[in-house]
Amino acid sequence: MANIAMLGTGLIGLFYTMSLTGKRSRDRVVVVCGRDAVKTRAFAERFGIPRWTTRLDEAVADPEVELVVVGLPNHLHHAAVVAAARAGRAVLCTKPLGRNAAEAAEMLAVVEQAGVFHGYLEDLVFTPKTLKALASVRAGAIGRVLWTRSREAHPGPHSDWFWTKELSGGGAIVDMGCHCIEIGRNFVGKDIRPLEVVCWAATQVHPIDAEDSAVGLVRYASGAVAQFEVAWTFRGGMDLRDEVSGTDGTIWINHWLRTGFEMFSAPGSGGYVAEKAESESGWLFPVGDETAALGYDAMFTAMLEAFEQRRAPAETFYDGLVVNAIMDACYRSLETRRWERVALEDWRGACDAGNTIELETFEDRYWLIKREHMPDGRRKLILKDRTTGDIVERIE
C-alpha cells in the first residue's frame, strides 16, 4: 500500500485520483493540495481524502505521505518536484516533465541527487492497445521498425493556463506532442538515440501566441522515423491514433473514436460522454472505462509496483528529459525551417545503433527485392543482380 499526496484538483488530478482509489484499491490518497480552498475541500470530501490543503509544502511534508503525485499546471512542476525531493518523498510527475529541457534536466538532477524514486506519468504508452502492440513489436512480430505515426487532436485544452505560453511552455506540441513523441520512442526503442527533428507548426484558429497545430518528424539512429501530428483545431471529440510500420508487418491503433461503441442520443437526453466530446446528442462515441482506456490504470499499477519493489519504473524522469529535448528541437526547427539536432549531452542509451539492413538472397546471385502472387496464381519475384546491379523479374 502507498500513502499518496495528490497535488492538483483539475482534470488530470481527477483522473489520477479515480484511478488510484478505484483500481488497486489498497493505495490511499491521504492529502490533496489545490489552489482553491473550496474546490480542494470538495475534492477531498468526494474521494474520502482525510486531509486537504492549499499549501504545497504542507502536503509533501505530511508525515503519512510516502509518494507525491504531481498533477499541476506545467509551470508548477519544477517547484513541486523540488519540494518533494527535499522532503525525501518519492515523486511521480505528469507530462510534460518540464516546460523545456533545461527545466527537465534540473528536475532530474534534483531527484537523482536526493536518491528518491521518480516516475514520468506518460499515460498513453500504458493504454491496453499500446501495451499489446509494444509486446508484439518487441517479440519481432513486425520486424525492424521503420516508421511510426502518432496523432492526437481535439478542440483544445480545458483550462486557461494551457493557452498561456509562459505558463505552459508552448502550445499543442508541449501539450500533446509529448505524448506522441514518447509513443514513437517506445515503438522505435528507447535505447535508440533520437538524432534530429524537422517540424511545421502554425496558429491556425485561436487568438493565442502559441501553436494550435503541428506536424513533426523525429529521425533515429536506427534509421527509423517517428511522425507526430497534434492539433487543438480538430472538431468532433478527441482523435487518438497510432501506426507502426516494420519490415515484416504493420500495426494500426484507434484509441478513442470508432472503437466499437456507438450511441445515438436525442437532443436533451444525453450527458457526459467522454473527455473532449463536443456533443451530448446525435451519434456519440462513448468510452466504457476512461481511466483504463487512457492508460491511467496500467500506468499507476506499473509505477506503484516498481515503487514497492524498489526498482526504476518503465518511464522515469530521464524519459521526460529526452521528450523535452526533442520538443526543444521542434521549436528550433520552427525558427530555422530545417532539421535541428536533438541536444542530449547526457545520453544513456545504446552507444551505436546504426541502420543495419538485412538483405535476403535468392540463388546466391540475386538480392530479393519483392515477391508477390499474381491474379492468375503465378508468383512474381523482383530481383537485383548482386554483380551487375540490374533489376530483373522472374515468374514462377
Report on this structure.
- With 396 residues, this protein is an alpha/beta fold.
- The protein has three domains: 3-122, 3-Layer(aba) Sandwich (Rossmann fold), CATH 3.40.50.720; 125-289 and 317-341, 2-Layer Sandwich (Dihydrodipicolinate Reductase, domain 2); 361-395, no CATH class.
- The protein is built from eleven helices and 19 strands.
- The strands form four sheets. A seven-stranded mixed beta sheet has the order 12-11-7-10-9-8-15. A six-stranded parallel beta sheet has the order 3-2-1-4-5-6, with helices on both faces.
- Strand 1, helix 1 (11-24) and strand 2 form a beta-alpha-beta unit.
- The longest helix is centred in the C-terminal third of the chain and has 20 residues, at 317-336.
- The chain is globular, with a radius of gyration of 23 Å.
- The relative contact order is 0.13.
- The model has no long low-confidence stretch (mean pLDDT 93).
CATH class membership of the largest domain = Alpha Beta
The H-and-E topology, N to C, reads as EHEHEHEHEHEHEHHEEEEEEEHHHEEEEE
Q: Determine the N-to-C terminus distance.
A: 65 Å
Helical proportion, percent range: 25-40%
Q: What is the third-level CATH name, the topology of the largest domain?
A: Dihydrodipicolinate Reductase, domain 2
Taken together, the total number of domains comes to 3
Instruction: Round the Cα radius of gyration to an integer and report it.
Output: 23 Å
Characteristic key phrases:
single chain, alpha/beta, Rossmann fold, 3 domains, 6-stranded parallel beta sheet, 11 helices
